[in-house]
Amino acid sequence: MSAHPISEEPLLPAEVDGERLRKSLYFFFLNPADKWTLRNTFPGKLILKILMAVFVAAQLVVFSQERMPYFEYATTVDRVVHHKFLKDWSVENDPMAFPPGEKLYSLYQRSDLFEHISHLVISYYTLHEESLGSFDYFNSTGELFDSIPEMEVCVQVRRRHHKRCNTLNITDEDIAAIEEDPSKIEAILERNNITLFDGRRYFAKAEFIFNLESIRETDQEMNCHQVETSTLFDNTLRSGMIVIDLSVKLLPATCRQELLEGMQNLSRDDWFNILLDITVISCCLCSLYSSIRSLHYGLRLMRLTSSYFSHNRSQRMTFGEKLKFFQMWYIIVILNDIVVITGTCIKFSLSNTDFDNYVYTGTSLLLGLGIFVVSIDLLRYLTFLNVLISMTKFMTNVLQLIICAAIMYSAFLLAGWTIIGPYSPKFHTVERTSKTLFSLLNGDDMFTTFVTVESSNTAVLLFSTVYVYVFVSLFIYVLLSLVIAIFENAWYRTVEDRDRYRLPEQKTNLQRFIDELDLNAMNTQNLTALFDSANLL
Cα-flanking dihedrals φ and ψ of residue 349, to 5°? Predict the structure, then answer.
């Protein structure tokens, strides 16, 4: 794939032709588009990069389409479990709704606590009777009441104490009793050595844990999940308010054999995914080989040039001159090819699995980062280099500006969290404060930010008003305008620089050596032959 010939026999300094070395160096430092124009050759690398960008993008789209139905299903299961096991659950309490609910799901009376625990227990033991979805008890041995797996209840008396866990042994008579009178659940809990209230000693945390089985069926496959469900009654603050939090976690589970009957082994979509993965790996291997070969050629050319300068011109190449041969972009492309190949192999091994874990998240990160580098690499082979060159010219100034902005942003972040945090839900935590500030930068409604601040404290209200005005004025009208001005200045300097691919005025020995090649004196019709691979080192 590389246009550079690589000789296995290293040339001696006396054997190196100066004119041939000069042409090789000139051609080496050209951009890919100029190389194809000079040689009038077929742009094979460009075609490879275009195909690679298309296939990696297609793979990422397919991977996302495969994951999204699962996440939609997981979100639905989470919402169903909340509505089924939490008494009086509504959209106002639902963090998955849009806009997310801000109302705390909390209790304030002992009778309410026992009603909610009774509702939780009844809902669990009447799952088969009331459920609309394909829910079942995990590892259930039958349909009878006695075959239902027991709940686990963990109670923590003090914040720093260890929690004590017991299984909740419930009979069908107990279910009937608490359906009639929810307060009887307290006696049932005490019968199972579970005490929530012992005189003046109230529990800190009480957690009810059980596992369900859920089935997601499509036209091509069926996936079973273990639904780990934990309902936490949090009383650690002992402020008279108990906060309830239900967490749901889906884990892979083996489906029973009778559920898998009639399912196809591999569908047409599966074969398409396999073919796409193989194509992506093949393109990455070709790109990997090409980059390694080009990097090796650059290092070889650097050694030849250094030897030639030392023996024929009595000059030593500086470290900066040698560094020009070591093109870091090839290193980035090599690492990216390895990343995409690794992500593709992991994706292939996860085929027909239907659960979210760190491996899935890591795979999406690998493929997502890969498409960015592939896209930027493609720009190198197209004629959009002005943008890239402009970015390199103004990057130093922008980095200096970003450091200053980061320091100022940290000051606004900490000040907003500390001063406004107790009086506005948008500034309650550092994370929320940061999100609020970024939202303001992107045009969020300032009025809602003002409204959320409590008006009871005049000093805080005045500070928040000045705080928001100064932040928006500084970061939007000043800093962003400076970034745009820096980029425009670098862009115009790049466009006006006719010799942007040539060497700067303060030339090094290497640059002066290359400039000795006079292309104007050469016959333009013979340039293609002069820069043929056979005539270069």
Answer: -70, -20
Asked whether the beta carbons of 299 and 325 are under 8 A apart, the reply is: yes
- Reduce the DSSP state of residue 151 to 3 states and report it: strand
Question: Rounded to whole angstroms, how far apart are CA atoms 297 and 7?
Answer: 9
In the structure encoding, which two tokens stand for residue 284, read together?
A: 């990455």
Per-residue model confidence (pLDDT) at position 141: 59
Domain boundaries, the chain: 13-65+267-383+502-535, 86-260, 389-496
Which residues of the chain register pLDDT less than 50? 1-3, 5-10, 12-13, 98, 498, 500-504
pLDDT for the residue numbered 383: 55
- C-alpha span between 236 and 256 (Å, rounded): 42
Say which amino acid occupies 390. Answer: S
pLDDT tens digits for range 349-375: 876 565 556 777 788 888 888 888 888
d(CA 450, CA 455) in angstroms, rounded, equals 9
CA distance 384 to 495: 12
Locate all alpha helices (DSSP H) within 353-479, ordered by sequence: 358-380, 385-415, 430-441, 446-451, 458-472
Sign of CA dihedral 13, 17, 18, 24: negative
Q: How far is 272 from 280, CA to CA, in rounded Å?
A: 12
pTM above 0.90, yes or no: no
Rg from Cα positions in the chain: 34
- Tokens 């010219």 label which residue? 393
Rounded CA-CA distance 129/296 in Å is 70
Contact between 231 and 89 (Cβ < 8 Å): no
Report the C-alpha gap between 434 and 419 in whole angstroms.
14
Q: Cis peptide before 99, with omega less than 30 degrees from 0?
A: yes
